[in-house]
Design goal:
Blueprint lengths: L2 E2 L7 H9 L4 E3 L2 E3 L5 E6 L4 E7 L3 H20 L2 H17 L1 H12 L3 H22 L5 E4 L5 E9 L3 E4 L7 H13 L3 E4 L6 H13 L6 E3 L5 H10 L5 E5 L2 H13 L3 E5 L4 E5 L5 H13 L9 E7 L3 H13 L3 E2 L14 H16 L3 E4 L14 E4 L6 H4 L6 E7 L2 H9 L3 E2 L1 E5 L3 H10 L4 E4 L14 E2 L2 E2 L4 H4 L4 E9 L1
Parallel strand pairs: 1-15, 8-9, 8-11, 9-10, 11-12, 13-14, 13-20, 14-18, 17-18, 20-21
Antiparallel strand pairs: 2-3, 4-5, 6-7, 7-24, 12-23, 16-17, 19-22
Helix pairs in contact: 2-8, 3-5, 3-6, 3-7, 4-5, 4-7, 5-6, 10-11
The structure holds adenosine-5'-diphosphate.
């Protein structure tokens, strides 16, 4: 498989854009240019550093929390309509700057430009949705059962929040947390992933332009996530921790948050089953599979991880997806016609190689791909593996890369058991034309989200989140803003 465009120097347009991205920490409305030790941000398609930015220390982290705490009362007291309009302006500015944001994400994360554009749309929707929700925060009012008083239930912002985001969706994971927090009246400290901090810095500048007051949003990229985060999480002024990332880190953060009795939202790992029944529309299933597996180069917690296909259609399904996979074009996300980009780093490439080797050693067959091509950048060929045997690592681990692994089943009970045999429970995909069967599966598959005859479920208006080891809480939808609100009850005697 050839790789498109990995040796090119930065274009004039890319250099000009990168020069406009702030390189400092953003604390209390001030950009603090860093002469301190820096973070070098790489283009994963070439392995080259494209920009250096300031690297926050634990002291910087506490200063960011100082700023968020200082701004908290004023922001909570700012009229919901004003908060809503600032978020709406942010949405509008994001549309104006769409091309810049898309290119920046492709540069630091690697996804193809068309997908980066899709993320601008998806990420932007959280700004629009929560600008609409900001003015609909409401409570209850009623007589107590004894008739001796009035019960008033109201919603208050939880207070300063610490938001930790991952590298795979540099914009959307930030807006999915920042927008509801701001809508609810909370101030925030954001720690973007070290690998992709540029989009968050560029977005903080956009928020400033949209009218977000100083101290309401603070951004502290750092290469020492644990050292910077621990004192923030332990600080009694912090009231909420929201994290998106791996389950092991989530467990550590939950333990730390427990010491400070923090509200938490945890969007952790997934191991999504993708079940194809014998009565499925195979064209739809193949289309859904390509989306659920190869979007974001397979690096999504919602990515289909285990293709569980009825034995009577497994060969045909494998043949059709293999044909599609062979037509994918691997390369730098800016390249013409590129549909699949590089992985985020060399560790990810090594992990793909190990997963394929383990599956093959246990009896699987590789139909296409399976290796890392020679040359620059962190590429791995899009891969289809069939006859995957129980016990293979690829069924247990979150793959987070472009490997489509197929195993088979014969009865509905077997399919359900296979789908549920994981510690994770984020999302499941089911393909069947039998509505009753589809409904049974929705009930029986133990996940926070389901796609019935579709490979993509995310929507700003929907509650995103998982059960089991996939996390706690929901982002987006009517539920999303409540993660940043606390309920207050008042009794007024008659
Ligand atoms: P991923 O597989 O997406 O890299 P991680 O869970 O390692 O998942 O990282 C997600 C985010 O969590 C990143 O912003 C990372 O810097 C941060 N992170 C990782 N370890 C810690 C930690 N011990 N404390 C706080 N943040 C952490």
């Amino acid at each position: 498989m050839t790789i498109v465009d990995t040796t090119a120097e930065l274009t004039a347009r890319e250099s000009e854009l990168l020069a406009r991205v702030p390189d400092g920490l953003y604390i209390g409305g001030v950009w603090e240019a860093g002469s301190r030790e820096q973070i070098g941000v790489q283009d994963p398609a070439t392995g080259r550093v494209v920009k250096r930015i300031a690297n926050a220390t634990p002291e910087d982290g506490i200063r960011a929390l100082d700023a968020a705490a200082a701004a908290a009362d004023d922001w909570a007291a700012t009229a919901p309509r004003v908060r809503a309009e600032i978020l709406r302006r942010a949405f509008d500015l994001l549309q104006e700057r769409r091309d810049d944001f898309a290119l920046l994400m492709t540069l630091e994360m690697g996804k193809p430009l068309a997908e980066a554009n899709g993320e601008v749309t998806y990420g932007g929707e959280f700004l629009r949705w929560f600008s609409e929700e900001a003015v609909r925060i409401s409570g209850r009012y009623g007589q107590n059962p004894e008739g001796t008083g009035t019960m008033v239930v109201s919603q208050r912002p939880v207070g300063p929040c610490y938001l930790i985001t991952p590298w795979n969706f540099p914009l959307a994971m930030a807006t999915r947390k920042i927008a509801p927090a701001l809508a609810a009246g909370c101030t925030v400290v954001v720690k973007p992933a070290e690998l992709t901090p540029l989009t968050t810095l560029f977005f903080a500048q956009l928020l400033e332009d949209a009218g977000v007051p100083a101290g309401v949003v603070n951004v502290i990229p750092t290469s020492t996530a644990r050292a910077v985060s621990e004192p923030i999480i332990a600080d009694p002024r912090l009231r909420k921790l929201s994290f998106t990332g791996s389950t092991p880190v989530g467990r550590t953060l939950l333990a730390q948050a427990g010491q400070n009795v923090l509200r938490t939202s945890m969007e952790l790992g997934g191991n999504a089953p993708f079940v194809v029944f014998e009565d499925a529309d195979l064209d739809k299933a193949v289309e859904g599979a390509m989306l659920a597996k190869f979007r974001n180069i397979g690096q999504a917690c919602t990515a289909a991880n285990r293709f569980i296909v009825h034995e009577s259609v497994a060969d045909e399904f494998a043949r059709r997806v293999t044909e599609k996979v062979q037509a994918l074009r691997l390369g730098r996300g800016t390249g013409d016609g590129v549909t699949i980009g590089p992985l985020i780093d060399d560790r990810a490439v090594a992990s793909m190689t190990a997963l394929v080797e383990d599956a093959v050693a246990r009896g699987a067959r590789v139909l296409t791909g399976g290796t890392a091509p020679e040359g620059d950048g962190y590429f791995f060929e899009p891969t289809v593996v069939v006859d995957v045997q129980p016990g293979s690592e690829i069924l247990r681990e979150e793959i987070f890369g472009p490997i489509l692994a197929i195993s088979t089943f014969s009865t509905e009970d077997e399919a359900v058991a296979a789908a549920n045999s994981t510690e994770y429970g984020l999302v499941g995909y089911v393909f069947t034309q039998d509505l009753a069967r589809g409904q049974r599966l929705i009930d029986r598959v133990d996940t926070g989200m389901m796609g019935l005859n579709t490979g993509l479920v995310s929507n700003a208006a929907a509650p995103f989140g998982g059960v089991k080891q996939s996390g706690l809480g929901r982002e987006g939808g009517l539920e999303g803003i409540h993660e940043y609100l606390s309920t207050k009850y008042t009794l007024i005697p008659a």
